[in-house]
Amino acid sequence: MSQESAESDRTSDESGGAGLRCLVTGATGYIGGRLVPELLDAGHRVRCLARSPHKLRDHPWAGRAEVVRGDVTDADSVAAAMEGVDVAYYLVHALGTGDDFEATDRRAARTFAERAEAAGVRRIVYLGGLTPSGVPERELSPHLRSRAEVGRILLASGVPTTVLRAAVVIGSGSASFEMLRYLTERLPVMVTPSWVHTRIQPVAVRDVLRALVGGATMPPEVSRTFDVGGPDILTYREMMVRYAEVAGLPKRLILPVPMLTPGLSSHWVGLVTPVPASIARPLTESLRHEVVCGENDIVRYVPPPPGYPLGFDDALRLALQRVREARVTTRWSSASVPGAPSDPLPTDPDWAGGSLYTDHRGRLVDAPPEALWRVIEGIGGDNGWYSFPLAWAVRGWLDRLAGGVGLRRGRRDAAHLRAGDSLDFWRVEEIVPGRMLRLRAEMRLPGLAWLEMHAETDDAGRTRYRQRALFHPHGLAGQAYWWSVAPFHAVVFGGMARNITRTAEQAAHASGGTRTPPAP
After folding, report:
1. What is the pLDDT of residues 313-339, one digit of tens each?
2. Helix or strand or coil: residue 44?
3. How far is residue 419's CA from residue 253's CA, in Å, rounded to a whole number?
4. Would you call 37 helix, strand, or coil by DSSP?
5. Is the N or the C terminus of the chain less surrounded, counting Cβ atoms within 10 Å?
6. pLDDT at site 144
7. What whole-number distance in Å separates Cα of residue 401 and Cα of residue 475?
8. Are 226 and 182 in contact (CB under 8 A)?
9. Torsion angles phi and psi, residue 441, rounded to 5
């Protein structure tokens, strides 16, 4: 794209009106996935930069936004994505990705800042964490410290920058909400760390999104940080008490234990809630210090409509309503993908990655294909895995103890899946509605693993279920792992095939939609 065409493609309203061309990074994540439709509804055009564009394919807004492949650490892909862009949203961070996340965040932010200035981007908008006032940066948690550093890098880019800082974000599917929800619902008597007495200013996800959309149209002379919070300042203990009241639960007994450190409490949170310790630790560490807004200047540029910002109780009610109605559009686990984009797929021709072990199962089904598909798409979460529940539960607990995600992530939606969804300790790598579901394992394994389930009709018009488990071992440990669990495959995978087909047949019989397979 030439400079002339890029300039002509920009909105003629230089004061920052509607019709801006926006680049959104992190669109596969919790906030980014909700921001894109908000920007589109505001009349802006949106381009999403994603390492795995197919994960955005099934979002309701996918047909309205442009999606390009790239990574924020790759200068060339960032430069290409910035062409013709007015506003660039930086919504990525390395939460729970390893010990070198600060260096990764720093490198990515510098790349983004440099390419934005070179492309003539008119504004950068970034969502970071609210840092406590009066606390030296060296005493902050590593993740809060890194987020603060990213904000400084973007502000120093030479491009007018809006840095929004929020503490606990309350919305259906957010990590903070699910941590609060499961701690309160599962533990009528709670032994808690001392941080339950820390004062916090939570904010509804709707108010965060409103500030992000409004941040795009700030005057060019504005380049600074803004604190974003709701109207309530509460301790975490008060938040749990009020959650119980809003959710209609009996009163909870909360017993603080001062010696429970953030590190220990993150493991405790990991055992009780779907949020793994690797994510819970930065969340709990950020609660050691008071996180309360020091100013509310955002209202000068993004005036709140009547009824906003939402109070804590109202934010909880909306989040719980979304959960109960199965309308959770994004979850905290949306972007939690430990596998590298370069990892091979089980569909790679001639399998360039070495050994690939497989377990095949197939059965004829006395039910229409659509009945079988409903069972396949509904697998996991509360529906379980249709075989040897104890074995799945033990595998989930072992994964949690090893620092993995375990089974508790559940599902975003009780009935429907889309590419990129987390599903217990799997990730939806590919889905062909009505026909095929492929899951990629995210549990701790000495190799790569997939599980495929197919609903098919054969040449004789019969419904057939086909299942395939695949494992690509890494080294001797991977070989040993496969052969150590191979004797259990008949019980686990064989039982899964039998029970999935039986469930589909029972559902079809109940609805009068059975069909008897012709004789082979």
Report:
1. 999 999 988 887 767 777 666 654 433
2. coil
3. 41
4. helix
5. C
6. 85
7. 23
8. no
9. -70, 140
Query: Residue 6: its pLDDT value, please?
Result: 40
Return the ∠ at Cα 39 (arms to 36 and 41), rounded to 5°: 110
**Strand 189-192 vs strand 253-256: parallel, antiparallel, or unpaired?**
parallel
Give the pLDDT of residue 414.
83
Query: For 113-132, how does the pLDDT look when each residue is reduced to its tens digit (9 = 90+)?
Result: 999 999 999 999 999 999 88
- Per-position b or e across 374-389, b if 16+ CB within 10 A of its CB: bbbbbbbbeebbbbbe
Helix, strand, coil shares of the chain as percentages rounded to 5?
Answer: 40, 20, 40
- Give the CA distances from residue 216 to residues 109, 182, 205, 334, in Å, rounded to whole numbers and listed in that order: 18, 35, 17, 24
Assess contact for 25 and 32: CB atoms under 8 A: yes
Count of beta carbons in the 10 Å neighbourhood of residue 189: 8
Amino acid at 39: L
Collapsed DSSP state (helix, strand, coil) of residue 23? strand
**How many angstroms separate the most distant Cα atoms in the chain?**
78
pLDDT digits (tens, 9 = 90+) for 63-84: 999 999 999 999 999 999 999 9
Query: At residue 367, what are phi and psi to the nearest 5 degrees?
Result: -165, 155
8 Å CB contact between 209 and 34: yes
pLDDT for res 335? 57
Q: What is the pLDDT of residues 228-280, one digit of tens each?
A: 999 999 998 899 899 999 999 888 777 766 666 656 666 666 666 666 666 67
User: For the ranges 222-236, 343-357, 430-444, which has the lowest average pLDDT?
Assistant: 343-357
Q: What angle separates helix 205-215 from helix 30-41, to the nearest 10 degrees?
A: 60
Burial (CB count <10 Å: 0-12, 13-18, 19+), residue 519:
exposed
Domains of the chain, first to last: 3-334 (3.40.50.720), 357-511 (3.30.530.20)
The larger pLDDT score, comparing residue 489 to residue 225, is at 225
Tell me the HSE value of 344 on the side-chain side, using a 13 A CA sphere.
18
Q: Tell me how far CA of residue 236 lies from CA of 192, 355, 360, in angstroms.
A: 10, 50, 49
Contact 442, 425 (CB under 8 A): yes
Q: How far is CA 502 from CA 19, 374, 460, in A?
A: 53, 13, 21
Amino acid residing at 233: I
Chain centre to alpha carbon of residue 270? 16
